[in-house]
Design brief:
The chain is of the alpha+beta class. Helix content is 50%, strand content 20%. The longest helix has 50 residues. Keywords: Membrane, Transmembrane, Transmembrane helix.
Length: 300
């Protein structure tokens, strides 16, 4: 169970409603007391892409935990964003004591109270159970999902490299045959009419051209570079490092750079990959789907 789930449940019992940014609003019947379990008849969910996270929720959690409201606001923002990303990739998010958020067949967010999803929860996979293990990160992304994503990226890169190597091998073979044919023709001509040294000079020039061709093929085969895939900039150091550490805990190679402009420090959050130029667009599209954010590419 995420450490915020119990606090959100307590807030819902006390104030009877709570909203989550770009997800929707939960409303609990006024007759339900904290000693009564939440059921499908006592709680109602309204999906709304325009919803904002209830401002009073941060004040409530700060009062319960004794932490700074600024830090709580930053944590809640990350919590809701990662919860939304978790649902968007097709993995239901379980809020202990409240219910389960998931993506419906129509693409809209749905909510189900525990009493009508108990059978579903028993059939959850091993990686889904890790979400309830009590770790401190806002969401426990499943290891199998991370491995599948990394394998997908690796397959794309391998196919791209093999394609370049295949094309380079083909060009090398064609150029080698052409060079052999040209050398034979020059040798025959030299035997009949050319001075003794002329064939040697022409052959050297041909070998030089062949070496230059091989060099160009080697460059083509190794045509890869390191790129930054920038997904966020912020002026909050707490937000920047919390976000980076969270994504690293899920297996993503997240990093942060900082630069001071006047009296403000700007933090740039990014992923770093070494790819061929042809694969950068595929990587950008995959990251945008994963994070639901616009990605900017910058070569290193």
């Amino acid at each position: 169970m995420n450490h915020y789930d119990a606090l959100i449940r307590d807030y819902l019992y006390e104030y009877k409603s709570v909203s989550f940014e770009k997800i929707g609003e939960l409303v609990l019947d006024s007759t339900v007391s904290p000693d009564q379990p939440i059921s499908k008849t006592s709680i109602h969910f309204t999906v709304s892409k325009r919803a904002v996270t209830t401002p009073e929720l941060a004040t409530f959690i700060a009062g319960k935990t004794g932490k700074s409201k600024v830090l709580i606001n930053s944590d809640l923002e990350s919590f809701v964003e990662l919860m939304r990303q978790f649902i968007n990739i097709g993995k239901p998010y379980e809020m202990e004591g409240v219910g389960i958020f998931k993506l419906g067949k129509s693409g809209e967010y749905e909510f189900a109270a525990f009493d009508e999803t108990y059978t579903y929860k028993r059939e959850e996979t091993k990686s889904s159970k890790k979400q309830k293990s009590g770790i401190d990160s806002p969401l426990a992304v499943k290891n199998s999902s991370n491995k599948n994503l990394l394998m997908f990226f690796a397959l794309i890169i391998i196919l791209g490299v093999l394609g370049v190597i295949g094309w380079g091998t083909y060009k090398l073979f064609v150029n080698k045959n052409n060079t052999s044919a040209q050398t034979q023709t020059i040798a025959d001509t030299a035997t009949q009419t050319a001075p003794p040294l002329k064939p040697l000079q022409d052959s050297t020039a041909i070998k030089t051209d062949s070496l230059q061709t091989k060099d160009s093929i080697a460059v083509a085969v190794n045509d890869s570079a390191s790129y930054k895939f920038i997904y966020e900039t912020t002026t909050s150091s707490a937000r920047a490092y919390d976000r980076v550490n969270t994504l690293r805990s899920f297996g993503h190679p997240s990093a942060v750079d900082s630069i001071k402009r006047d009296s403000v420090t700007v933090y740039t959050l990014y992923f770093k990959y070494r790819l061929s130029a042809a694969d950068t667009a595929i990587m950008k599209d995959s990251l945008q789907k994963l994070l639901s954010r616009k990605i900017r590419i910058r070569p290193l």
